[in-house]
Design a protein that fits this description.
about 55% helix, Rossmann fold, eight-stranded mixed β-sheet, alpha/beta
């Protein structure tokens, strides 16, 4: 594919799952991906070998010299160190940018590059990379959270669109809250499934059978949320106003001990808040909210007492 000269040259420091998907995606969209460096040379070689005109390099500094936009696709603990070792120089930094791909780390970690005249920014895809070729297709429709100013923001927005993703903008200082909250739609969703599986196993369900039953329900819930929004996707006794069922379930989880009741109560509190956002909330929503708070008071006090004993 011919490369329009107006597009910036893109380089990567790091050749892991994220870098592989982004580099191949940018290349397929027509961007010149010119250089890749990695602490594991074989990884850089494998990625560069899939991209026409891309060089696998031993020295990350050579990526800066061959690219206009350099993506730091390295672990969070290495971002600051990498930024300190790269040299842009007051003359060589003209038109160059250094961008990290972390959701949690501040862009300010890249200040050494900015001090040398380069633009800095953040580019975080909200996607769980599997490291497979299917990532290139599955990332389409996802969002990319961008933190940058001026021309770099425009460039990163165009790169997100090139991946067929939706660009989001985040203010400086907001990345830790943004990233922490995102766990509820990723890791914590898995934790909720794990809690259900653990409880069902006490009834004799095998984990494989439990997941076979739960995953289609989760997929349907996500699709309904996409179609109808969060409040109208809510199902279960809170959404129906079944006070008696909620009270019995809360009491059951309290009887199990541990933190089962606290977790169930806290999530039930969130379910109440969603139900209250409906155009016509369940008639019994106030009594359900009261039952949830009473149970939470008992379970959280019990958990605190158990912690103090330990």
């Amino acid at each position: 594919m011919s490369q329009p000269t107006s597009l910036p040259r893109v380089g990567f420091i790091g050749a892991g799952r994220l870098a592989r998907c982004l580099a191949l995606g940018f290349s397929h969209a027509g961007y010149p991906v010119t250089a890749v460096a990695s602490r594991t040379p074989a990884s850089a070689g494998r990625l560069a070998g899939q991209i026409p005109g891309c060089a696998a390099l031993d020295d990350p500094q050579q990526v800066v010299e061959r690219a206009d936009v350099v993506f730091l696709a390295v672990p969070d603990d290495s971002i600051g160190t990498s930024a300190h070792t790269l040299r842009f120089g007051p003359d060589g930094a003209h038109g160059k940018s250094l961008v990290h791909c972390s959701g949690a780390s501040p862009v300010e970690l890249l200040a050494p590059a900015r001090d040398q005249g380069a633009s800095i920014g953040g580019f975080h895809p909200l996607y769980l990379f599997g490291g497979e070729a299917t990532d290139l297709e599955r990332i389409a429709g996802c969002s990319v959270t961008i933190e940058a100013d001026g021309a770099l923001k425009d460039t990163l927005t165009a790169l997100a669109v090139a991946l067929r993703c939706h660009p989001l903008s985040i203010p400086p200082g907001g990345r830790m809250l943004y990233h922490g909250a995102a766990h509820y739609a990723a890791s914590f969703a898995l934790c909720s499934l794990a809690e259900c599986v653990a409880l069902w196993r006490t009834l004799g369900f095998a984990e494989d059978d439990a997941l076979r039953a739960l995953l289609p329900m989760l997929a349907g819930t996500i699709q309904t949320a996409r179609d109808k929004g969060l409040p109208n996707a809510l199902a279960g006794p809170v959404s129906r106003g079944d006070t008696g069922v909620v009270q019995k379930q809360l009491a059951l989880f309290e009887s199990l001990g541990g933190d089962h009741a606290a977790l169930y109560g806290l999530l039930s509190r969130r379910a109440v808040a969603l139900a209250q956002r409906r155009a016509t909330p369940p008639a019994a929503i106030d009594s359900i909210a009261e039952a949830v708070e009473e149970s939470l008071g008992r379970s959280l006090n019990q958990a605190a007492a158990g912690a103090s004993v330990k």
